[in-house]
Amino acid sequence: MADLPDPVTIGVIVGPHGVRGTVRVRPSGSGDHLRDGISPQVAGVRRKILASRPTPKGFLLELEGVGDRPGAASLKGEPLLLDRSELDSPEEGEFYVGDLVGLTAMDEAGERIGEVKETFETAAHEVLVIRTGGEELFVPFTMEHVPTLDLAGRSLVVRPPE
User: Fold this and answer.
1) What are the Ribosome maturation factor RimM PRC barrel domain coordinates in residue numbering (predicted)?
2) How many CA atoms lie within 13 A of 65 on its CB side?
3) Cβ neighbours of residue 17 under 8 Å, at least 6 residues apart?
């Protein structure tokens, strides 16, 4: 990743689709960056997105240099990466969900609970995976469960579900 000083995952290849090298991709966030003409790094190689089609479960992408099912299958599990400088700028008050990873999770009394290790999307909302010692805590990313977010201070306040 030498050419990506600040890599951001825009999606993950979940498998092949068909026989012509199309890949199924689960987006990270909205999937806005999974569009024609973008050239994410996949398995250490920049690959231009030649075609992108949204589906109910993600996106189908045709990537430069991937022309058959075995080639597509070999990329299963690989993230699609862009450098942060290549991302569309978020609007005022907006941020990328990936920016939550690494934040310190605190309770309402200011005690450290753990660290956000990853996020994943459900039909209803994003879910934060917070590592607390050797355990994982799953917290819905809603105003009810995350009343305070301080990106500059690298922390958030969480109210874990019962």
Assistant:
1) 99-162
2) 11
3) 23, 24, 60, 72
